[in-house]
Amino acid sequence: MEKKYTCNDNPISCIFFYLLITLNFFSAKTATAQSISVKVGVVLDMDAFGRMTFTCISMALSDFYATNNKYRTKLILTSRDSKNDAVGAAAAGLDLLKNLEVQAIIGPVYSSQANFLISLGHKAKVPIITFSATSPSLSSLRSPYFIQATLKDSSQVGAIVAIIQAFGWREVVTIYENTEFGEGIIPFLTDALEKVNVRVPYRSVIQPSATDDQILAELYKLMAMQTRVFIVHMLNPLASRLFTKVEQLGMMSKDYAWIITDGITNDLNSMDPSVIASMLGVIGVKPYVPNTKELDDFITRYKKRVLQSNPKALGVDIYGLWAYDSAIALAMAAETAGLKNLTYQETNISTNSTDLESLGVSLSGPELIQALSNITFRGLAGDFRLVDGQLQAPPYEIVNMVGPGARGIGYWTKENGIINKLDFTSSSTNVYTTSKSNLGPTIWPGDESFPPKGWVVPTRGKKLKVGVPVKVGFTEFVRVTWNSDNTTKVEGYCIDVFNAVMAALPYGVPYEYIPFATPDHKMAGDYNALAQQVYLGNYDAVAGDVTILANRSQYVDFTLPYTESGVSMVVPIQDDKSKNTWLVFKPLTWELWFTTFIFCVVVGYFVWILESDINAEFGGSPLHQLGMIFWFAFSTMVFAHRERVVSNCARFLLIIWLLAVFVLTQSYSASLTSILTIQKVEPTVTDINALIRNKDYVGYSNTSFVFGFLKQHFDASRLRSFKSAEEMDELLSKGSANGGIAAAFHEIPYINLFLGKYCSKYMMVGPTYKAEGFGFVFPKDSPLVPDVSREILNVAEGQKMVEIETTWLGDKTKCPDLNSLLPPKSLGLSSFKGLFIMVGIAGALALIFRLCHIYRLRAHSAEPESKNWICPGDELTAQSQRDELHRLLKERYELGGQQGNLPENPNELPAIPAHLHEHELPMRFNNRDEQGN
């Protein structure tokens, strides 16, 4: 059993305890008496939203002072109902400033209510703190006493533009309410879209008081447009009505994309569930709010305090969190500023002044706004930090409307763009990206899993007006025929290609052809004027033989080219009869002829050096030896040489040379045969420089841009125009000297068509000057361009393009290839350089071996003087010596007319000493003859 203590047990302790309690009580009353009450006005619409935010402000101050019970200052709230009206907000603010002399005002709710209240605060030097007026235009008032403790609508523009970039949409339509809130974001949004080449062809403005019929009428107008990407910026009441009608009209279906701003996403919890269900597939952005323990605790306490007693009350949204953080910041600033004099200074006024003129000036306002601007802390909505009176933007969360609510699919930050998850600890280099791969799985309107193209041709829309040129010549490309009822028939190569490409698009595009013609059915201008009609909006596109040029692309867009590109020259062809006299020299170039001659002489000289001392056939008088050099060398060219070569070195050299001669003669024969067999033709002119030197006349099409190109090279007086292929043929046939032209310049597609008709008379020569070919014309940034360009590639790679070309441009195989009629090129030295190098190496090796053997014999032989110029293996056997001696004796007797006793058989001759060699026999024999022996 526990013991109980009473005052009777220890009277001194009891007296001390009572004294301590009394001291604490009086200390507390003294501290309370010394606290400074700071009056703060709250201007709100006291509807469900206003009551929710006022509760958040009250809870913020209760939480703050419960934690900081030793603060000298304490905010005392006084609320006024602005009655959902700008005048009501102004009246409430004026009452708080004039009658209560508040030191700060929190509110109002809407941007339209804030303008006048900001002016009042500026005059009275009283801070005006709004947590829900988001219009960027409010900051233009430049009042130092205005604090926008919420995010400006323009803060989300980067996130919206990044989404549009991620999915490659080129056009968007903005839908916004006709209020200061709705209009505030539009200039920032359109400027940001223009920077990334996204057009805003239409702005849909809806009055907040618009009837359902008026909303339907505006939606019908949007359905008749081509663009299918819509950005919606409006408040909850109008947004709920809008999306209800959108679903009724079937616009929340495939091919549509809807993006909502944070004005809607921040207020989803107050929307009717049926409205949220109608927004399936909508993409939205909203400020990122970190999930913290403090936030969860606050929401729990809010539910206990409000929702249990009133289940229909609004739950806390981000505006409630900003209201909470604004009250905390103001309480911290009041304490930091050390406010003492909380009175107003009266102004000097006349007796007839109004209430506004008699408004006093707060003496503590400057200190309070200065302290408030420097307050930073981590609030329930994230980091609270003001720069120039603006709350700094956190990352934005990208959400997708799925089922009963919004699901996060990614984030956007100013530094990194679209990212899959936030990483505040990473210190890596920031790389901005708008890749859609960083977004999570997304559901699109119509319960589609693939993003819409963002652009279609509406079934209720009018047909595309496609302009076509009216041509006089080369009508195979575009031909316009007028019927008796003034209707037109448009056909041709370009038209068939356009039809094939448009038919290949994955969606139907209705269009009609409109000739670019005057009332008398003539071309209404040149091709530049035709392209400009698209820029002026008279045509939606142009299909025809329009060349892609840089100056035209400045105001219109072209698809990829569907024809060959370039400008070239057409000239007449002529037979090559003037050079038949020297035709035999044509197969080889003069460089090769000269090199062959030099090597013939050099090889003959080398063989003479190697054979002259050991072969009598290469002996004789100097003139005879010189003749032998040339005779032997050139006779090898036709393998007609009869002289016997006995030196191994000379034989080695001769083998290599005969191989080279064989290759040369065979190549010469083949080239000469080709020249004699092929019908030889050549152009009358080979390049533009010859035309300029000769001052010839040249031709061009009167509708082509080629005229501007030619003026850079020719005098304008030397240029003659033609309208058709027939006129072009007539001018070329006459020639420059007879009133015609020496050459015609045109684009390659026209040249191919022309040569298809006159392939036996003309040919294309000279360089091809760069041009981009024919393309279809569309307005600048038209979303049709990438789709049509893609289909041009598909059609060009298929059989359909071959059929179109055959139908209109003819069969190219019917005309021979003019390149095959040109005389073959002469064979040059470069083709046989290897052979001549081999022959040169062989000659050098033969001489080197001969010199080495001479050195060896002189070093070891007893008669070195008789061993000159002997190659290895040149020594004769006894039998060969007898044969050579017998031959020489026989020739000698025959020349002298003597019979002698010469045996018929060489073996009957006496043996010759072994030290004698073949080259010594004629020398010894001649010596004896001179001695008479």
Description of the molecule:
With 933 residues, the chain is α/β, with parallel strands linked by helices. An eight-stranded mixed β-sheet has the order 7-6-8-9-10-16-17-18, sandwiched between helices. Strands 25, 26, 27, 28, 29 and 30 form a six-stranded mixed β-sheet that branches. The model is unreliable at 1-33, 862-870, 873-878 and 912-933 (pLDDT under 50).
Our estimate of the beta-strand percent is 15-25%
SS class: alpha/beta
Mean pLDDT: 82
Question: Unreliable runs, pLDDT <50, ≥5 residues?
Answer: 1-33, 862-870, 873-878, 912-933
In total, the number of strands is 31
Question: What kind of sheet is the major sheet?
Answer: 8 strands, mixed
Strand order of the largest sheet: 7-6-8-9-10-16-17-18
Shape: elongated
Helix content: 40-55%
Number of DSSP helical runs: 29
Distance between the termini: 172 Å
What is the CA-based Rg, rounded? 52 Å
List the helices and strands and how they pair.
Blueprint: H1 11-34, E1 36-44, H2 48-67, E2 73-81, H3 86-100, E3 104-106, H4 111-124, E4 128-130, E5 146-148, H5 157-166, E6 171-177, H6 180-184, H7 186-195, E7 199-206, H8 212-223, E8 229-233, H9 236-248, E9 257-260, H10 262-265, H11 273-277, E10 283-287, H12 293-307, H13 318-337, E11 344-345, E12 361-362, H14 365-373, E13 376-379, E14 382-387, E15 390-391, E16 396-402, E17 405-413, E18 417-419, E19 464-468, E20 479-482, E21 488-491, H15 493-504, E22 511-515, H16 527-535, E23 541-542, E24 556-558, E25 567-575, H17 590-611, H18 622-635, H19 648-677, E26 681-683, H20 688-694, E27 698-701, H21 706-710, E28 719-722, H22 725-734, E29 743-747, H23 748-757, E30 762-769, E31 777-779, H24 784-796, H25 799-809, H26 818-821, H27 833-860, H28 878-896, H29 920-931
Parallel strand pairs: 1-2, 1-3, 3-4, 4-5, 6-7, 6-8, 8-9, 9-10, 19-22, 19-23, 27-28, 27-29
Antiparallel strand pairs: 10-16, 11-12, 13-14, 14-15, 16-17, 17-18, 20-21, 24-31, 25-26, 25-29, 25-30
Helix pairs in contact: 2-13, 3-4, 8-9, 13-14, 15-24, 15-25, 17-18, 17-19, 17-27, 19-27
